[in-house]
């Protein structure tokens, strides 16, 4: 069966009403904060309730989206022409394939999400040459790697860009580390991993983790987030606030209160380089 036929079957499958509009949904809450239109009353109520607890949440969501656009632009300029965006969320501005193809029109992108509504929207709105959407669960990295669509668009042995934006705080630190390690191990040397994680100080972070009803949130410490890059070489400026990440531009360290988004890009070294660092 041709890839387009398989995708047509997948679109028909995921477009069935499997979601509950009366229950807040992670992707739809985030879409509301970004100014999107794909949300329901329950999502808007949850988003506004959380903004009442911490008003900077919508601003942080926008900062993360702009970080992702800068990171993908930089990766494409480094010659990365294939991307796997896991937990991509609902289509909005600065989608990965749009940013990458603005630099290199031949860029290929696979969007992966476990939400059938997200996949249905992505299949309908983000279609184009070299762009596909699959339903997959980040908790099962082996399943993502084995997906035939990933196998066709992400060529083995060729460096790729892996995007894990605002998804790892939905796993405890041990699980998140295992997930990133498994995916990084699969990537070819010279690949890059883009990570952003929401967290906060003891008061704000724990409050938001307790109050968030659209999913289970873990308030990781900064050193735990840094551990997600184990085995990778951090691209300067390293692990910083999403709004401050610009490749090669250092920023002064500062104390942080409240909520923040830590973001960074790591490069998988070639085996010889890894040995040299030991």
Helix content: 40-55%
Beta content comes to 15-25%
Tally of alpha and pi helices: 12
Average pLDDT reading: 87
Shape: globular
Task: Provide the number of structural domains.
Answer: 1
Structural class: alpha/beta
Low-confidence sequence ranges: 1-17
What features would you describe in this structure?
- This protein is an alpha/beta fold and 278 residues long.
- It has one domain (3-277): Vaccinia Virus protein VP39 (Rossmann fold), CATH 3.40.50.150.
- It is built from twelve helices and eight strands.
- It has helices at residues 3-14, 26-33, 41-53, 57-77, 96-103, 116-125, 141-146, 148-153, 173-186, 202-211, 222-227, 271-277; strands at 82-86, 108-113, 131-135, 161-165, 192-200, 233-234, 240-241, 259-267.
- Strands 1, 2, 3, 4, 5, 6, 7 and 8 form an eight-stranded mixed β-sheet that branches.
- Helix 2 packs across helix 3 and helix 4 runs parallel beside helix 5.
Task: Name the features.
278 residues; Rossmann fold; eight-stranded mixed sheet; 12 helices; 44% helix; disordered N terminus
How would you sum up this structure in a few lines?
By secondary structure, the chain is an alpha/beta fold. The chain has helices at residues 3-14, 26-33, 41-53, 57-77, 96-103, 116-125, 141-146, 148-153, 173-186, 202-211, 222-227, 271-277; strands at 82-86, 108-113, 131-135, 161-165, 192-200, 233-234, 240-241, 259-267. It has a single domain (3-277), classed as 3-Layer(aba) Sandwich (Rossmann fold).
What secondary-structure arrangement, pairings included, does this model have?
Layout: H1 3-14, H2 26-33, H3 41-53, H4 57-77, E1 82-86, H5 96-103, E2 108-113, H6 116-125, E3 131-135, H7 141-146, H8 148-153, E4 161-165, H9 173-186, E5 192-200, H10 202-211, H11 222-227, E6 233-234, E7 240-241, E8 259-267, H12 271-277
Parallel strand pairs: 1-2, 1-4, 2-3, 4-5
Antiparallel strand pairs: 5-8, 6-8, 7-8
Helix pairs in contact: 1-6, 2-3, 4-5
């Amino acid at each position: 069966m041709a890839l387009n036929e398989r995708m047509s079957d997948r679109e028909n499958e995921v477009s069935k009403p499997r979601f509950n509009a009366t229950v807040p949904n992670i992707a739809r809450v985030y879409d509301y904060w970004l100014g999107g239109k794909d949300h329901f009353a329950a999502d808007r109520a949850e988003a506004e309730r959380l903004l009442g607890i911490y008003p900077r949440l919508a601003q942080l969501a926008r900062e993360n989206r702009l970080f992702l656009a800068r990171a993908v632009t930089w990766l494409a300029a480094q010659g990365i022409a294939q991307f796997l965006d896991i937990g991509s969320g609902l289509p909005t501005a600065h989608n990965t394939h749009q940013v990458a193809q603005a630099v290199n029109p031949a860029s290929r992108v696979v969007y992966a999400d476990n939400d059938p509504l997200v996949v249905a929207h992505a299949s309908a709105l983000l279609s184009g040459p070299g762009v596909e959407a699959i339903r997959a669960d980040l908790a099962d990295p082996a399943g993502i790697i084995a997906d035939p669509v990933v196998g066709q668009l992400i060529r083995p042995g060729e460096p790729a860009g892996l995007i894990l934006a605002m998804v790892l705080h939905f796993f405890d630190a041990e699980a998140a580390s295992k997930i990133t390690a498994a995916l990084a191990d699969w990537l070819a040397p010279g690949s890059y991993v883009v990570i952003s994680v929401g967290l906060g100080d003891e008061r704000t972070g724990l409050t938001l983790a307790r109050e968030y009803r659209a999913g289970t949130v873990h308030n990781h410490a900064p050193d735990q987030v840094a551990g997600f890059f184990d085995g990778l070489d951090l691209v300067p400026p390293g692990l910083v606030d999403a709004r401050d990440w610009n490749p090669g531009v250092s920023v002064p360290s500062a104390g942080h209160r409240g909520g923040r988004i830590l973001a960074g890009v790591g490069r998988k070294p070639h085996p010889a380089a890894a040995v040299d660092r030991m």
